[in-house]
Amino acid sequence: MIASLKQFFRPQTARAPLATVPEGQRFYVVGDIHGRRDLFDALIEAVDADDAARDDADTTIVLLGDLVDRGPDSAGVIRSARDWGQRRPVRYIAGNHEEMFLQSFEDTEMLRHFLKHGGRETVLSYGLDRGTYNSLTLAELQDEIAEIVPREDREFLAGFEDMIIAGDYLFVHAGIDPSRPIDQQRSSDLRWIRERFLNSTESHDHVVVHGHTIFEDVEDRGTRIGIDTGAFRSGRLTALMLEGKERVFIQAVERDGAIEIEHVGGRS
Q1: Which domains can be identified in the chain, with CATH numbers?
Q2: Global pTM?
């Protein structure tokens, strides 16, 4: 789903006190990558450079899920995400596409669903050629992906979290069920919810930073901030930097075959 935007930040009817993260901490929250390793690797460099240029802080990087599917190099994205976590504090949130991918190893109907929603590109990114892919039955393909996808990748994805709280912020893949308290949220909603969350007028205890729903650019609605800018389709991958009351957006943007980094200041 793409929501049309008239401006970078939509006007808010009431300006609530600015949300903050705990003092001395800094967070970089990255939206849905969907197999765009080129954008992701450029954004990793930009985030590392931005962090190094700032005063010392306890920095945590959060990936909001949907690392895989649709784009051309999901296998590479997984490697880059895991490597980043080996040298920096990185936490990973599970998206609905990670859920489909993992379930596809055991459930042929889920595999069928997964392939229709970008999983074909994920399978091909592990080195399976298109001719072989097209010749295999569903059952044969399930056996094949069990062979070509390293167990370390599956275990890595299976270890992803459902949500992370940082001061006044809640980081989650899709959103929350507005009718439930935070400690009673269901994983299915955290990974799949859309309209009930996006259209809700309920106030939340936290500002929810989420992906899952594509916007032309960042959508700040006061109680939630959507940072899925459709990297696989738009060529724009977004990270949100949070420190104190400050918000800065860092984007890796593909233009004419080259990737540029843009910084956009938010509220502070």
Answers
A1: 23-95+162-265 (3.60.21.10)
A2: 0.92
